[in-house]
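Dear colleagues,

For the upcoming journal club I promised to circulate an example of a predicted protein-ligand complex. I picked one with zinc ion because it came up in last month's discussion. The inputs are reproduced below in full, followed by the predicted structure.
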Amino acid sequence: MLKDQAIVVHAAKDLRSETRDLVPLVAGEVRLEMAWGGICGSDLHFYRHGGTGVAKLRQPMVLGHELSGRVCETGQDIRGFAVGDAVVVHPARVCGQCHGCLSGREQLCEDVRFLGSAARMPHCDGGFRRFLTVEATQLRRVPEGLPLDIAALTEPLAVALHAIARAGDVAGRAVLVMGAGPIGALLVAALRLKGAARIVAADISDFPLALARRVGADETWNMTRTAPEDMFDIVFEATGVADGLSAAMQRARRGGVVAKVGIFAPGLVPAPLSLVVGREIDFKGCWRFGSEFDEALEMLAEHSAQFGNLVTHRFSVDDYRCAFETASDRTRAMKVLLDLAVANKGLEVRADTSSSRWGEKPTWRLLPCGACPAGNFRLTLTFGPS
Ligand SMILES: [Zn+2]
Ligand SMILES: [Zn+2]
């Protein structure tokens, strides 16, 4: 009997791999065998702090909402999807009846179920697992030629595209992206494709800035060393720190736009609102995404190599602790992907070393992984003189 294997957060710094029974499908549902999962800033917040924004962890929850996989079972009444289809998962299941849904802004749904979110009780489990059950309406077919690992970027790219849609027409505009983490870097790449005239990426670390330049930034500013006085038509604030908003407003020129992507900590956030009035700055809050999910999938399919530059690490899901520690280090990691397909296989060694053709002696060594403090080991095989 097949079992599910899932990455479950119990509390800050308490991640576990757990076995779960598979539940029979009901009408309208599809079961996926998962392929890839991207580790998001919110997954890292649950891992490091046991919560994100106002959503505090109150019970164990499966993480993950940036997902690709293949259909492995269909419930009754499923049309349009068949076993074996490569798909990405829209992480939101909306009510379709509230004011947000009826006004065409489904990201504002008052009764949304979002994969890997602690906003409601019981929490909504996510998709870092071997098998995931979702409603067929949440699936999108992966276009021909788009690899499933890159397809897992659909969700975060949709976040970036929604922020761009909120900011307005970017073609020919001077744009500053503050914070060059995964969302900031995806913003840069998408802004380039959408015809922004000048794109500057700002951060406090050189590593993400180098990647931002690679995917389309004209200039990068390391704010610990340089902070030119330039003003911009549009400023995207994606730093994740409270005083980023203030700096963003300073950089917006008269009649400009400041778009805030990502979440604030609960409570008051200081900002120079006199500038918002005096310069008639439009401040745009940007929450998740709506139809931009489909736009993101198309954009990835057309430019998969370009977006693939942002994937810096791929880990087997068995190394989930290494993966989360690595993703937490923004001086060397951008987007970190979990290979969910190899779950539950344990260690497989397929090498016949009983007789070495060159007369050299095979040596197995169990070495510390070295990439993280989780204490995982790596098995290596070397040949030396016998
Ligand atoms: Zn995300
Ligand atoms: Zn709704």
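Two points we might discuss: The domain at 173-286 is CATH 3.40.50.720 (Rossmann fold). The longest strand covers residues 29-38.

See you all on Thursday,
B. R.
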